[in-house]
Structures are given as C-alpha cells and as structure tokens.
C-alpha cells in the first residue's frame, strides 16, 4: 500500500496559498481517482482507494506544516508503510517556477520545514517526493509571508496545470515507474509564448 501525503496547513485562511499546494494535489487525486474519505485519525484527514491498480492512502496532515512528520509517522507506523518505497510526499517548492514540478527519490529538506519534520520523525531522507513550483519569493519579502500568501490569477492557472502533472507523476510512481516520471517531468519546460 502507498501512503501519499500532501503538505499544507488546515483552516480556511490557508486555502489557495502557496504552502498548500500539497493539500491541493491530494484533493485533486481524491477527486480524480474517486478515493473515499476514511476519516480523521493519526493527526490527518485521509482517504483509502486505488490508483493505477495500487491500494493507496491519500492524506493531509492536520498538524500544521512544521509538525507534518507527526502525522506521517503515525500513518507509517499504523499501516506498516515502508517510507523508502511506499511513501510519496507532495509539497511546495520556491526554487521552481509556478507550473513546474520536480520528482526526487531522496534528499535533504532544502529548508522546507514540513520535510525537515518528516525526516526527523521517520528517521530517513530516502522517500519519493514531488515538489510543486510556487515561484521565488520577491526581494524584501519574509519567506513565511510569501508562502502563506495566495496565488495571483496567472500563477494559479500554472499551478493547477502542475497539480495535474504531479497527479500523473504519482500514478507513475505507484506503478514503480519513478525513473520514467523523473525523465518526463524533471526537465525544464519552456514558457509558452502567446
């Protein structure tokens, strides 16, 4: 069984913010693959279903971003998930332009507090992740203010496209095609000229 975790912050005030694209991607997966809600347990809201013939749990931690690892650890322990092969984490990345995604098999937190907490809680940085670009913070902006700010209209359209790509990447990863997904999605896409 795969555990797909989208990172974000619970609460209406955080909807449509850059830090919540992980939540947005899980919402898209739940809708696209008709994953039924399984309830709120293990410090997360989650559903159980099937993607590409594989059983999955799709979860949104309710701990707030900086403590995401608490929910991940509880789900990993309870469902006996092997984090190195069966955990997929979806989250925002300021080093990627809106519309871009990047897939990694492992790596450091890169300054992302949600990932930092997951690594600390599960004791490994080896787990597949899909980073969704939200764009670099403007000069003189505080990072927290930036990631908690909403998207502009054009950015939102690009990010919605990236969410669809991220869902396709998840589908490939659960079919053990992570290398193909990396080849397909990790190259820089050229901006579309009008």
Task: Provide a quick synopsis of the model.
By secondary structure, this protein is an alpha/beta fold. The chain is built from 7 helices and 7 strands; from the N terminus they run βαβββααββαβααα. α1 packs across α6 (153-174) and α6 (153-174) packs antiparallel against α7.
**Number of self-contained structural domains:** 1
| Topology pattern, helix = H, strand = E | EHEEEHHEEHEHHH
Helix content estimate: 25-40%
Low-pLDDT sequence parts: 190-194
Mind explaining what this structure looks like?
Mean pLDDT is 94; it is low at 190-194. A seven-stranded mixed beta sheet has the order 2-3-4-1-5-7-6, sandwiched between helices. The longest helix is centred in the last third of the chain and has 22 residues, at 153-174. The chain is built from seven helices and seven strands, in the order βαβββααββαβααα. The chain starts with a strand and ends in a 9-residue tail after the last helix. With 194 residues, it is α/β, with parallel strands linked by helices. It has a single domain (2-185), classed as Peptidyl-tRNA hydrolase (Rossmann fold, 3-Layer(aba) Sandwich), CATH 3.40.50.1470. Helices cover 38% and strands 22% of the residues. The protein has helices at residues 21-32, 68-79, 83-86, 113-122, 143-147, 153-174, 178-185; strands spanning 2-6, 37-41, 44-51, 54-61, 87-93, 101-104, 129-133.
């Amino acid at each position: 069984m795969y555990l797909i975790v989208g990172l974000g912050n619970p609460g209406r005030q955080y909807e449509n913010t850059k830090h919540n694209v992980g939540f947005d991607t899980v919402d898209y997966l739940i809708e696209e693959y008709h994953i039924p809600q399984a309830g709120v347990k293990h410090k997360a809201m989650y559903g159980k279903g099937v993607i590409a013939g594989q059983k999955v749990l799709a979860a949104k931690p309710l701990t707030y971003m900086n403590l995401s690892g608490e929910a991940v650890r509880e789900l990993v322990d309870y469902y006996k998930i092997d984090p190195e092969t069966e955990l997929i984490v979806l989250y925002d990345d300021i080093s990627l332009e809106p519309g871009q995604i990047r897939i990694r098999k492992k790596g450091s937190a890169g300054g992302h507090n949600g990932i930092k907490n997951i690594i600390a809680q599960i004791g490994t940085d080896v787990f597949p992740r899909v980073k969704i670009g939200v764009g670099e913070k403007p000069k003189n902006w505080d990072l927290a203010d930036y990631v908690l700010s909403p998207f502009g209209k054009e950015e939102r359209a690009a990010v919605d496209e990236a969410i669809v790509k991220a869902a396709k990447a998840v589908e490939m990863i659960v079919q053990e095609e992570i290398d193909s997904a990396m080849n397909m999605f990790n190259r820089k896409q050229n901006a579309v000229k009008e």
